[in-house]
Amino acid sequence: MAAATTAVTLGLAAAGAAGQAVSAHKQAMTARRAETRAKNIARAENGKKQRYLLFSYGFPNYLETEEGLAVYNEKINDLLPNHILKHYAGRVIAVDLALKNSFSIVYNELLQYFNKDIAWNLALRAKRGLADTSKKGGFSKDYLYLKGKYVVEDFVKKGGDVKELYVGKIGVEHVPLMKEIL
Fold this sequence. Notes:
mainly alpha, 9 helices
């Protein structure tokens, strides 16, 4: 994860802190939420139609592809402006820091890249669920969004058909197996 953090940190400068109107931000958030719900529902419903329940419940590590598809869909539908991409990058950094540090260290490190409110929210997301946020540890799911986006993009670049990922709750790595058993 350290290499990913370094790459994301370098990318933060490029992403910048693009200012957007509040209403445009809310519209984008609404569209992203709808896209994510539709994607999750389509994969779950398609999975129920398969002869193996695993397609409905989810293959091991399917979540990386699931969350990656959400961000990939944002990108191909022009719903991923730089300031949103920067937030995804911030989540990766927050998770990496949270696994090694206390809440206060995570928050203070994030202040290098984000304003106080955003840094606070990112640190809070990364430390959510912990009884004692002064300890190492955190909720690591948030790094999957950005990592999954790159996994899905790589799959498509190598000739994969993104539609194959909607057969059920599978990961990119399960596509060859899916082709054999369906």
